[in-house]
Amino acid sequence: MGTEFADKSAEMFKALADGETGTFRSSLRQVFQLSPQVPPAERAALSNEIAPLLSPQDGDLELVADLAVLAGALVEGGVPAGTAGVQVMRMLHSWAGSIDTRREAGGQHSVARRLGLAAKTMLTDAEVRAAVRADEHMLFDLEVAAGRLRWNVGEFHQVARLLMMADAVSALVLDRRSGRGFRVAFDGVWSNFQLHTLLVDALVGAEGRGLEGERPCSGCVAIESGRPQPTHDATEELHEVWSLWDYKGRRIDLTDSPADFPLHAGERVIVLGMKESALESWTPGYHCHDRIRAHLTVRAELPPEETTGLWSRIAMPEGAGDSA
Ligand SMILES: [Zn+2]
């Protein structure tokens, strides 16, 4: 099979260089169909060969967008996103800067849709998210572009959410009940349901940092971290231990994502309020991205003088933990 795959790949690259659209598309389709049957190393080699071609300056954007979709399909099949993943994001950045993202109609076979498809796959890779985050301009521009494109091009709903995931990877966490504060780092967190579970696991009880509350079982935490637990009781539910607030005193919804906690002096602040009477419950894994593993670690507990200073600058509404 390897030979046919190699032959078709070579034919595809030649047709691209010669601008033979028909041959390019038919050989690309065959490469796509053959790819699940070839060894991972050959698929990874193809991805590396595609990577330098993923540039809007490099030939016909229509054809390059097809290559981006193929690169995404290879990642879906288990190839690390690598350079091709970062190139797809750079290409999307450059393309979005050249069009009117408010008016882009995004039909079924549009460049917009194909780049969105490729980007939402590439952003499931932690290294691609890290590369986007490392380029402040790219992250900002892409967030704006995806926020506009998602109204007309469905793929960009997920792209926008994954960019938020790329954006928010650390926070100061302040516990209203104990007054204590922690600096945490995380990645791959899709929703605040998931963030809540990982915070409980890291902070509550003797296994955590000694905060009050009921810990979820380790199986539930594993599921919420994106590690499937086939033997775990599927009827079990997770329960809210704290209400979550931002530093301005606004309640943050569990369906939102960690990026929805605004920054205070350059750092995201999450306030753990007291338990409310109406508690939310949810099924483990329900509010997570099915291809992404999440993790959260406590970097340090803040010294008391730092937490005192922070509390004095944080607004908390009545009833959100004033007994602390
Ligand atoms: Zn459980």
Verbal overview:
The chain is α+β, with helices and mostly antiparallel strands. It folds into two domains: 39-167, no CATH class; 170-312. Helices cover 47% and strands 10% of the residues. It has helices at 2-18, 21-34, 40-50, 61-76, 82-98, 111-122, 126-134, 136-149, 155-167, 192-203, 218-224, 304-312; strands spanning 170-175, 181-187, 238-239, 244-245, 263-264, 267-272, 281-282, 295-301. The strands form two sheets. Strands 1, 2, 4, 5, 6 and 8 form a six-stranded mixed β-sheet that branches. A hairpin with a 5-residue loop joins β1 and β2 (181-187). α2 runs parallel beside α4 (61-76), α4 (61-76) runs parallel beside α6 (111-122) and α5 (82-98) runs antiparallel to α6. The model has no long low-confidence stretch (mean pLDDT 93). Bound molecules: zinc ion. Zinc ion (ZN) is lined by residues 216-217, 219-220, 232, 236.
Count of the separate structural domains: 2
Low-confidence stretches: none
Number of strands: 8
Global Rg? 23 Å
SSE arrangement, N to C = HHHHHHHHHEEHHEEEEEEH
Average pLDDT, all residues: 93
Class computed from helices, strands and strand pairing: alpha+beta
Compact description:
The protein has 324 residues and is of the alpha+beta class. The protein has helices at residues 2-18, 21-34, 40-50, 61-76, 82-98, 111-122, 126-134, 136-149, 155-167, 192-203, 218-224, 304-312; strands at residues 170-175, 181-187, 238-239, 244-245, 263-264, 267-272, 281-282, 295-301.
